[in-house]
Structures are given as C-alpha cells and as structure tokens.
C-alpha cells in the first residue's frame, strides 16, 4: 500500500496546486483535492506536512461552499482524522468527529451513508480510548447499515464486524 501512496502523491500534489491556483481556495474542486492530499499525507505518516496542507481548508470550505456541503463535511472528517493521528490527539480527534456526526445527523439525517460511516469510525476511536459503552451503539448502527446496504461480504461490513468483535472481546463478552 505504501508504494501506491507514494505513486499517488505527485498526482495529488499537482491536482491540488492546479485547482488552488486556477479556481481559488474556496472552490469545491480545490477543497476536494486538498482534502485528498491531507488524507494521503496522513496515511503516509507525514503528519506535519498534512497539518500544513490542512491549513485553512475547513474554513475555506465553510466560507465557499457552506457548512452543509458534502465537501465541507469531508474536509471536517479529514481534519478530525488528522487530529486523531497526532500524538496525544485521540481525544481531540474523537471530539471533532463526534461534533461532525451530530452535525451530519442534523443536516442529512442519521441514516445517511456519510453519517453512518463517520459513526462507525467514531465508535472504533471511542473503543480505542476504552469508552466501550459509548462505542457500542455506534458500531452496531454502522454495522447494521453496512450489512443492509452492501451485504455481509463487503469490506466495510467486514471491518465493522471486526470492530464489534474487538469491542465484545474488550467487554469480556467473547
């Protein structure tokens, strides 16, 4: 996977630079490409560079696209993931993601795929912090949605099953 991330990097950097220069920082394309670049750098473990790219991404997305736009919500999720990846950032990242789950529940509904995906992600993060009672309903809801939407063989469903198994193991229920 790392090799593919390294191959993707010049493409991401070039696309983000081009749209930023030609469309401005508040354009939906710019927000999308910069969010992709931040996520790529986070996955590479290059957190300082990801933080630098993140810069004013969320503020630009809110100002240019509005707080309910899907690319603004994606930018906020990327920012929360980056915060979570920072040393001692798990609690701050989880707080940001919790706020995002609440906001997307309000904007697009609790049953929307984006909301449920972030809910599952938050459940996993809460589990990592030992907040098992808070994590369980989120993981269960994300799993039920994933099974219904994509079926039991889907990679997202399988990941949610893994989160549930780990949760139950930590609870002493396995």
Characterization of the model:
This protein has 174 residues and is mostly helical. Helix content is 82%, strand content 0%. Helix 2 (28-44) packs antiparallel against helix 4 (57-65). It is globular and about 55 Å long.
Poorly predicted parts: none
- Helix-and-strand structural type: mainly alpha
Our estimate of the beta-strand percent is under 5%
Largest sheet: none
Please render the helix and strand layout as text.
Layout: H1 2-23, H2 28-44, H3 47-54, H4 57-65, H5 70-85, H6 90-108, H7 113-128, H8 132-150, H9 155-171
Helix pairs in contact: 1-2, 2-3, 2-4, 2-5, 4-5, 5-6, 6-7, 7-8, 8-9
Which key phrases capture this entry?
174 residues; mainly alpha; 9 helices; globular
Question: Summed up, what is this model?
Answer:
The protein has 174 residues and is mostly helical. It is 82% helix and 0% strand.
């Amino acid at each position: 996977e790392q090799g593919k991330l390294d191959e993707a990097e010049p493409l991401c950097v070039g696309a983000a630079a081009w749209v930023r220069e030609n469309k401005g920082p508040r354009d939906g394309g710019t927000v999308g490409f910069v969010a992709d670049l931040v996520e790529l750098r986070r996955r590479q473990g290059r957190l300082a560079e990801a933080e630098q790219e993140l810069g004013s991404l969320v503020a630009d997305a809110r100002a240019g696209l509005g707080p309910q736009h899907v690319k603004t919500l994606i930018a906020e999720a990327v920012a929360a993931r980056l915060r979570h990846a920072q040393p001692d950032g798990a609690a701050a990242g989880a707080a940001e993601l919790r706020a995002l789950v609440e906001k997307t529940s309000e904007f697009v509904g609790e049953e929307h795929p984006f909301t449920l995906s972030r809910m599952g992600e938050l459940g996993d993060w809460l589990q990592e912090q030992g907040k098992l009672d808070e994590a369980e309903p989120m993981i269960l809801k994300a799993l039920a949605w994933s099974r219904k939407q994509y079926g039991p063989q889907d990679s997202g469903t399988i990941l949610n099953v893994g989160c549930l198994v780990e949760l139950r193991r930590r609870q002493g229920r396995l």
